[in-house]
Design a protein that fits this description.
Layout: H1 2-12, H2 30-45, E1 48-52, E2 58-62, E3 73-78, E4 93-95, E5 103-104, E6 111-112, E7 128-130, H3 139-157, E8 166-171, H4 185-188, E9 192-198, E10 203-205, E11 210-219, H5 235-245, E12 261-268, E13 273-282, H6 285-305, E14 311-319, H7 323-326, H8 330-342, E15 348-349, H9 357-363, E16 370-372, E17 375-376, E18 384-386, H10 387-408
Parallel strand pairs: 3-8, 3-9, 9-16, 10-15
Antiparallel strand pairs: 1-2, 2-8, 4-7, 5-6, 7-18, 10-16, 11-13, 11-14, 12-13, 17-18
Bound molecules: zinc ion.
């Protein structure tokens, strides 16, 4: 397990922040530095079919060591870190045997406080890895990368553990929503996979929002204000009227758990034309369709009140709840649950109020739930992870491999 920390520290020191303003894939060259490092470690481990493509997708396989047919399973993590905070010169610090209270982050004024982050109260006695207060940590998702590599190294060193083909995939640009874009599911060639990209120990996720963007365009008539009487139609007034027709208690700030919402996230106003950018989220497909129909109905009502054609709605689906792709194969979740329980981890199944690469991979034909890394507070300087949580993740990966072999032999 010393190797686990060594790996993690080695990976977080390589800057791999992705950049949503760059169209190419990978969006930043730094991601190749980590990919090259991982590729040579895979070579040292003697893995098969190692490939790093021009878009920075790294894949490899630990071949089956049994003669029976055991389904190939995959483990996936992303190499980039979030654009929200710097990932340059990450200097992780370890607080051994945490006993409560504030943790000073580096030598500045920043602290990690249990008042702000009550999860810390559950971690007394644990070894906590934090930032130095100037960068994010990059546990999202280099902890996942380190955990997968450590588990694979363990399996290589312990051939007495029988397994089928184990496929490993490390992706670029997940944080800017593109990690699944160029992922070659056919080449990866697993029956199903798990992203190791969740938070606290026990997290197991296979449900995410259905997501649609809804652009409402309101058209006005612009006339010089001095001679506007009876002629001007101000599109900003139409837009305001529309927003007031939306349910005020179905917004992100008023919902949680399995509740969906409408969210007005941008506005481009002028007298002649005002664009309202909404997103619609719901866990059920039916609910999502109802929400889309509701918006259309409100647009139609408004058009009846005004002159026809003043308001337009454009709906674009962006991703779907992976539950419908995972549920037909209940063993994928059952194996993960069983592996966790055998590793003394209580599975915490909860819906993701967002999307994941796993969801998009699931719709590309690779069912792909998400498993914890052991980390907290991703994407900022208060990110931290426990050594114990990382070890649990490694154990769960190894156990999952064993349980799969058990089930199919
Ligand atoms: Zn992540």
């Amino acid at each position: 397990m010393d190797k686990l920390l060594e790996r993690f520290f080695r990976y977080v020191r390589i800057e791999t922040q992705s950049d949503g303003d760059v169209a190419s894939c990978p969006s930043t060259a730094g991601q190749f530095n980590l990919a090259q490092q991982l590729k040579s470690e895979m070579e040292e481990l003697g893995l098969s079919d190692i490939s790093l493509d021009e878009h920075c997708y790294l894949m490899a396989r630990l071949p089956s060591n049994v003669s029976v047919d055991i389904p190939a399973i995959g483990f996936i993590a992303h190499m980039d870190t979030a654009p929200d905070a710097s990932g340059l010169n990450v200097k992780p610090q370890i607080v051994e045997n945490y006993q409560g209270g504030d943790i000073a982050l580096g030598i500045g004024d920043e602290v990690l406080s249990p008042i702000q982050y009550p999860d810390l109260n559950k971690l007394h006695g644990h070894n906590i890895i934090t930032t130095d207060g100037t960068t994010l940590l990059g546990a999202d998702n280099k902890a996942g990368v380190a955990e997968i590599m450590t588990a694979i190294a363990y399996l290589v060193a312990h051939p007495e553990i029988k397994h089928g083909d184990i496929c490993i995939g490390f992706t670029p640009d997940e944080e800017i929503g593109r990690g699944a874009n160029l992922f070659d599911v056919e080449k990866f060639n697993a029956q199903w996979a798990y992203t190791i990209d969740g938070g606290p120990v026990g997290e197991l996720e296979f449900e995410n929002f259905n997501a649609t963007s809804a652009d409402v365009v309101c058209y006005g008539t612009n006339v010089h204000p001095g001679t506007a009487k009876g002629k001007m139609v101000n599109s900003m007034n139409i837009a305001a009227q529309f927003q007031l027709m939306m349910p005020s208690n179905e917004t992100p700030e008023a919902t949680e758990g399995y509740e969906g919402f409408y969210h007005l996230k941008s506005m481009k106003p002028s007298v002649a034309k005002t664009e309202l950018g909404y997103i619609i989220r719901d866990f059920s497909r039916e609910g999502q369709e109802q929400r889309k129909a509701f918006m259309q109905q409100k647009v139609d009502e408004l058009n009846l009140q005004l002159e026809k054609g003043r308001v337009e709605l454009v709906l674009t689906d962006s991703y779907f709840n992976m539950r419908e792709m995972v549920e037909p194969y209940p063993h994928i979740i059952e194996l993960a649950k069983a592996a966790m329980i055998e590793c003394d981890v209580q599975p915490e199944i909860k819906p993701i109020r967002g999307g994941t690469d796993g969801a998009r991979l699931s719709f590309k034909g690779l069912p792909c739930p998400n498993i914890f890394t052991g980390g907290y507070n991703f994407h900022g300087i208060h990110e931290f992870i426990t050594v114990e949580g990382m070890e649990k993740a490694v154990n769960v990966i190894i156990k999952l491999v064993e349980k799969t072999t058990e089930k199919y032999s």
